[in-house]
Amino acid sequence: MSTISSIMQDSHRQCDALYAAAEEAVAAQDWTGAAQHWQIFSAAFDDHITQREEGQLFPALEAAGGPAGPLAVMRSEHQQMRALVAQMNEALSARDSQQFLGLGETLMLLTQQHNMKEENILYPIMDQRIGERAADLH
User: Fold this and answer.
1) What is the dihedral of CA 56, 21, 81, 95, to 10 degrees?
2) What CA–CA distances, in Å, run from 134 to 11, 85, 114, 130?
3) Into how many domains does the chain fold?
4) Mind spelling out the 3-state secondary structure of 88-138?
5) Which residue, among 103, 11, 41, has the nearest Cα to 33 in the 3D structure?
6) Rounded Cα distance, 15 and 37, in Å
7) H helix and E strand count, the chain
8) What is the CB neighbour count within 10 angstroms for residue 30?
9) Backbone dihedral region of 67: left (phi > 0), alpha (psi from -120 to 50 degrees) or beta?
10) Are 22 and 103 in contact (CB under 8 A)?
């Protein structure tokens, strides 16, 4: 049986790979490919943080008496990441590779730090308190 940790860590890796494909296309000035890869990444990113985490897991953990502080931090960081994604979308529309790639560095640093907190702290708590919800994530 899959755990919340394993499912969500796999989702992190998938989002990383999808982002890398968009970044490579932008770096190569392949604007059609970049737009396609970016759309796929954006949908996966939104599904991960909006649907799965904020829509399912965070409310379930809160209902189970989970720690409010870490969830507030995760939601705040999600907002920061959403703002960067929106700015990157604008840079992509303007075909501004320098702006896109610069914002992408910031997004990747924030995402790596964020993911470490989730993978090492929050997801294990979820496995303990609401592990039965893993089946809902498929």
Assistant:
1) -140
2) 13, 27, 20, 8
3) 1
4) HHHHHHCCCHHHHHHHHHHHHHHHHHHHHHHHHHHHHHHHHHHHHHHHHHC
5) 41
6) 11
7) 6, 0
8) 13
9) beta
10) no
The tokens for 42 are 């954006």
d(CA 26, CA 110): 20
The letter for the amino acid at 33 is: G
DSSP state of 29: T
State the sign of the Cα–Cα–Cα–Cα dihedral 12, 5, 66, 132: positive
- Altogether, the residues listed in the chain come to a count of 138
Residue 122 backbone dihedrals phi, psi, to 5 degrees: -70, -50
**What are the tens digits of pLDDT across the range 50-88?**
999 999 999 999 999 999 999 999 999 999 999 999 999
Place of tokens 């089946």: 135
Tokens 């190569």 locate to: 28
Domain that holds residue 38: 4-137
Cα–Cα dist 54/88, whole Å: 22
The model scores a pTM over 0.90: yes
